[in-house]
């Protein structure tokens, strides 16, 4: 078994042999020094890089999440208007869903050609990365601990075993004319230093909102929240060196991630920004070496089976809902508009593109690479081709997600809502177990996912919550806070339940956009969130859709007709059908069949009916299937 670490600041949980204290302490001090130096260098280098990261263009789309854009996302203090009697409140739970940080492009097999010359140009087609992957096997002691972990009921910290090597993976083995997919040392979709910086900032954003650290006042830091009603973690005992559980204990923290380099590493870096000072304190108090660094369990699943980004494949009902949305009057008005026609004509005439053009555009501009001259640049409120193409792609993709009260998104993201409610419901009812009973509820649940995760969650909460006009930027955060209302003398006409929620997206409070919630109030009765989410929060989704099966049948028949064998079969079928039809007509007119056919009367009649039915099906459903909505190669710009 191998443990994977995705941060250049990660350390393994291998421990030095027990009894060799001096060697262990030296190694520990050395690793701690490396950790601190690398953290310092990373910070200094990022400050230097930040000055050069975004220079080519005058403006950058919100998608890029530049340092200036990230500063606009801090979580606002809870605002309760004067005269609004909510009484005493206490924060009991926070769910945070994040999009991965800035990453590399996805490669030609996924994104296509992008545009002529993209992969041949060194500026756009070669990707080299500074952040690498470390591999470490588990220590002997950790293996023993894992064997009895169920009985221990927690995540142990390894303290024994023999020293192990860390493998530092560098994707530089292939030499010209051979190369990696991205023609350099980067992996497809790998987190970049820009993304590292974004998630570090996200961790600090969470820290400043939800963590109280008395040492921050002593040291002059202003990175923790001093307001009791918004404190999710208090580190008073931890700061005094008392024997208390660390804030990353599974009773406090639940981490869920997609099984990709960008999502795993994004979650890991966010954790460093959130608990960096406590991690340093933990290291100073421990007497042993590498194994004293804490481990955090990350819950994940196979990419092909995971629901963190919603169901995107193998669900016929989703196909049917998407098709239904493309038949809607609003979509046809968008698709047939002069603007949409001009954008499609421009892309067809000026670009060599595939369905991944949107990803190509954004990964290019957000890494300060060269865009084709005919694109123009991104300019705020300007009608450049870059803006127009991005707007078209976004609208084309998000329309099905929001159509008909977000039926597509509700079905797609329902299983993830079931996971999220595992931690929200106990904080409402005061229970000690989740719906599934698999994991203890946590104070803070972090889901490191994708843009599709955030889009579908937002869409499922109500048509006014998200307008679908702006694609979720890198490192976006969607936050659901659960607040206990402790005062029995409060105004119960505002919140009848004993719990309320606050919804925040990239620093903007969206609570009053959820159906049932009062305008201009940041807290809303939890019952309105549950009324919206509980009916769709199911782990087993019914994906069966007969209309999709019939449509697939038509497509298969069309595919058959595109082959020589299929054409000959069709001619034979038509001839047989015509002959059988003529025979039936003769029978109707004369009351008898030709002598040679009398023995096979029933068999021939059944065949005539079946062929007639197939022809009718193709004639009736073919044109609908070939509508412009389905011919457009940009139906799905890709979700990553």
Automatic annotation (TrEMBL):
The chain crosses the membrane at residues 565-589. InterPro entries: His_Pase_clade-2 (IPR000560), His_PPase_superfam (IPR029033), Histidine_acid_phosphatase (IPR050645). Gene3D superfamilies: Phosphoglycerate mutase-like. It comes from the Eukaryota. The keyword Magnesium does not apply. The keyword Transmembrane applies. Belongs to the histidine acid phosphatase family. This is Acid phosphatase.
